[in-house]
Here is the input.
Amino acid sequence: MSSLRAAAPTHHTSTRLLPDGSSVETTCVPLAGRHHDQTLVRSVTRAAVRPTAPSALVTSRSCRDGYYRNWPGGWAGGTYDYVINPSGMPNRSRTMRAIRRAHRTWNEATNDCGIPAQRLVRLHDAGTTHRHFGRRPDGVNVVDFGDMAAIGMSNRTTLAYTQTWWSGNRIVETDQRFNIHKRWSTSGARGAFDVQAVATHETGHTLGIAGDYAGRAHLGLTMAANIAPGETRPRTLGWGDILALRALYP
Here is the structure.
């Protein structure tokens, strides 16, 4: 059942129940043992599993929809390094390429709207690692596949999870985990979730975009809450996604 939790000062907390019964949760909680102005922000995306086939209408809508919702800030200088743990990945080499393409989408503000490329951020691929998603900050920004229950999430309802650590209004570290128990594809295959589409959405969270817009009003945007099996729409940014990036990294 959906519920609200107490928010950290100046931050936003919400839990939304989606029409299909799944939920989207964005939560700010104090980071124990750290300076009082440092908070742990957890952005959780539980993507809907109801098929919603992309259409020309959705693509057109994404180029007109300027809606966005951001966290209070982003990365200093608009740059960070990330590493990928390939352990347990399906189709390892193709999956890693999809994750890297997702990060490049934000580097170049890739879109289908005819908006010129803009290099507002620099997300640098720093190779591979044996480290995993961390429950506490360790100075390394990791992307991995793994069990969601091991990090306190549901394997049934959680598709991917991004956790971000802050110092004041600046992001200092982020980790992403993809549910190893879900079916994944790098080609938009029916019945499987598209790695690049989901990774592009999750990387928006790592940049400070709150996103997770429930319902159909903003369905054309990368940061919309619903990602259906076989859907590749979120691979490229919509107008609202680009505006969110510009607002955080002017």
About this structure: The helical segments are 56-64, 92-108, 195-206, 239-248. Residues 92-108 form the longest helix (17 residues). Confidence is low (pLDDT under 50) at residues 1-57.
